[in-house]
Design goal:
mainly alpha, 88% helix, elongated, 91 residues, 3 helices
């Protein structure tokens, strides 16, 4: 499962880099850092969500989803908005 998850994440990551290069968008170091941290935390949340469900602990699974999943989505959205607003301001 982990191999498939990391393969999918690598394909998505390379696709994002390709699209950004095609549109000539340069991200700053902190946008990369915030986005990468969000993706790592989201992967952690998804793994623990499914792991807790496989161990018949649905309450723990949903707790992981709320405690780690929501902040991860907020970090990803923050990185996206930082980049979008900077590009819009420069255009």
């Amino acid at each position: 499962m982990w191999t498939i998850l990391f393969l999918c994440l690598a394909i998505i990551f390379l696709g994002v880099i390709w699209v950004l290069n095609k549109k000539d968008v340069k991200l700053t170091w902190y946008e990369w850092l915030i986005g990468s941290l969000g993706i790592l935390i989201l992967g952690f949340a998804v793994q623990n969500f499914f792991g807790s469900f496989s161990e018949a602990e649905p309450k723990a699974a949903w707790t992981f989803a709320w405690v780690f999943g929501i902040p991860a989505l907020v970090l990803i959205a923050l990185a996206w908005q930082l980049a979008a607003r900077r590009v819009k301001r420069l255009a």
